[in-house]
């Protein structure tokens, strides 16, 4: 049925290569509809660039997708519209249910799971086009599919399979079902490069092969693409997982664009190109923020080494532990407080209590600012969304490069659930897996309050934090929400 939904339409530019070859006229209204949907997708990306306009951006994306889907259904020879509408209704019900039930802390793994579905869809569409090329209006040559169409098909299947298996591994790591530490296979570089080379060779052979010889080639291509997706993500450690999520988002876009060429569908090409390019740009920006090599992350942990995989045994060291009353007293005496939220705040859902604490401090004349790391919360924008949910004023939220110089003038650095993004090892320990990643200079603040559940846990990168043991650090060991609520009570 999938093949019939997207089969040859009477509008060649927007339908299939076969239709274009017949010289049929292009319907300008369909072209306009796809163009409008593309504009809405661009506006959606623009809106999502800021928490202030993110809701509007989401609405633009929904409108653009609605226009694209309706246009495709109206202008194509659909086998059974009732079946299509039932499938849409089931998908919508599943989507609404997940959106209502999913916790904000589970958003990174949810995004990875959705990416896997996009990749799998690309694989299925590619195989459907291969098994029934006539239904997709693919150009035929000597009884087989044209070489250019087979290249597009191979790319779509290959990228889609890599996206699927890679996203599954990312989901397992982010959700805690699999260790976040890098899993370094022996001779992994040779294996990865060899597998990628084999995929390229199989794609070329598939494009050039006679019709009767193509089946083993496309099967081998698909299997190896699934395998390399697994191999690329397994060696990547927890510190790099935010980049992986963004990178897989880019892969899913390119898979959709490749399938758009196979199907001759302009909307898929536009949408896939937008997702692919924006995901690639975001991945590059995040790599710069973490001082990581973009190419090494794409290559699946080429920059990882054995020291990053295991982690060393932690030494028992003395630290200062304080109470909510101690923190409340010192916060009230401060002139400037910088709050650094992290994944622990998200897990405890402490953002509303944190906003209440900040409001009370501001009423007492204390200047309060929030510092957000580009990869805080395992996904870009995670902390911004949580703070926006708690109605924290946008003008009080600052990125790392805009506020890092202010820690030297801060009376208190209030760390709630963050860890890796404030770890000085990123600047001092060349053997650390986070070495080179820009971090907040909390060690320059006069006083540091560090909220975490216990001293037994470490950050997602799995390394100890020197900040725990500094002279000016007071550890507040408790659930983040409970601790902040106790601080608020102590300030009444």
Automatic annotation (TrEMBL):
Pfam families: PNTB. It catalyses: NAD(+) + NADPH + H(+)(in) = NADH + NADP(+) + H(+)(out). The keyword Chloroplast does not apply. It is found in: Cell inner membrane. The keyword NADP applies. Keywords: Cell inner membrane, Cell membrane, Membrane, NAD, NADP, Signal, Translocase, Transmembrane, Transmembrane helix. Residues 31-489 form the NADP transhydrogenase beta-like domain. It is a multi-pass membrane protein. It is an enzyme of class 7 (translocase). InterPro entries: DHS-like_NAD/FAD-binding_dom, NADH_DH_b, PNTB-like. Its EC number is 7.1.1.1. Residues 1-20 form the signal peptide. The chain crosses the membrane at residues 30-48, 60-78, 84-103, 110-131, 151-172, 193-211, 217-236, 267-287. Belongs to the PNT beta subunit family. The transhydrogenation between NADH and NADP is coupled to respiration and ATP hydrolysis and functions as a proton pump across the membrane. This is NAD(P) transhydrogenase subunit beta.
């Amino acid at each position: 049925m999938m093949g019939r939904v997207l089969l040859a339409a009477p509008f060649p530019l927007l339908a299939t290569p076969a239709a274009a070859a017949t010289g049929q006229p292009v319907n300008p209204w369909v072209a306009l509809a796809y163009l409008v949907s593309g504009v809405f997708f661009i506006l959606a990306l623009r809106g999502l660039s800021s928490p202030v306009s993110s809701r509007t951006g989401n609405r633009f994306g929904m409108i653009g997708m609605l226009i694209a889907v309706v246009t495709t259904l109206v202008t194509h020879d659909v086998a059974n519209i009732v079946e299509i509408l039932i499938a849409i209704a089931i998908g919508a019900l599943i989507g609404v249910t997940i959106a209502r039930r999913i916790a904000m802390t589970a958003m990174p793994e949810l995004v990875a799971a959705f990416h896997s579905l996009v990749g799998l869809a690309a694989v299925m569409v590619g195989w459907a086009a291969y098994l029934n090329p006539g239904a997709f209006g693919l150009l035929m040559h000597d009884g087989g599919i044209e070489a250019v169409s087979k290249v597009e098909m191979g790319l779509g299947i290959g990228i889609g399979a890599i996206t699927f298996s890679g996203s599954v591994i990312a989901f397992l790591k982010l959700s805690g079902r699999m260790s976040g530490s890098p899993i370094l296979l022996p001779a992994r570089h040779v294996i990865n490069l060899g597998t990628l080379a084999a995929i390229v060779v199989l794609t070329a052979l598939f494009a050039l092969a006679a019709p009767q010889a193509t089946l083993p080639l496309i099967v081998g291509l698909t299997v190896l693409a699934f395998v390399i997706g697994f191999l690329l993500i397994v060696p990547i450690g927890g510190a790099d997982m935010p980049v992986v999520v963004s990178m897989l988002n880019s892969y899913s876009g390119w898979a959709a664009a490749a399938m758009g060429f196979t199907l001759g569908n302009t909307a898929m090409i536009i949408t896939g190109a937008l997702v692919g390019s924006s995901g690639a740009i975001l991945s590059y920006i995040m790599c710069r923020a973490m001082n990581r090599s973009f190419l090494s992350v794409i290559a699946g942990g080429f920059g990882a080494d054995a020291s990053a995989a295991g982690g060393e045994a932690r030494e028992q060291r003395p630290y200062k532990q304080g109470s909510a009353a101690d923190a409340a007293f010192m916060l009230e005496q401060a002139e400037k407080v910088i709050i650094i939220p992290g994944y622990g705040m998200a897990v405890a859902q402490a953002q509303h209590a944190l906003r209440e604490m900040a409001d009370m401090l501001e009423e007492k004349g204390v200047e309060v600012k929030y510092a957000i790391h580009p990869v805080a919360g395992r996904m870009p924008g995670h902390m911004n969304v949580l703070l926006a949910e708690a109605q924290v004023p946008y003008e009080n939220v600052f990125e790392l490069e805009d506020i890092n110089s202010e820690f030297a003038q801060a009376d208190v650095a209030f760390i709630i659930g963050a860890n890796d993004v404030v770890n000085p090892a990123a600047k001092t320990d060349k053997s650390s897996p986070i070495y080179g990643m820009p971090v907040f200079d909390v060690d320059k603040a006069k006083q540091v309050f560090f909220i975490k559940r216990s001293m037994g846990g470490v950050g997602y990168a799995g390394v100890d934090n020197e900040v725990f043991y500094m002279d000016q650090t007071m550890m507040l060991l408790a659930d983040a929400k409970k601790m902040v609520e106790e601080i608020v009570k102590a300030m009444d």
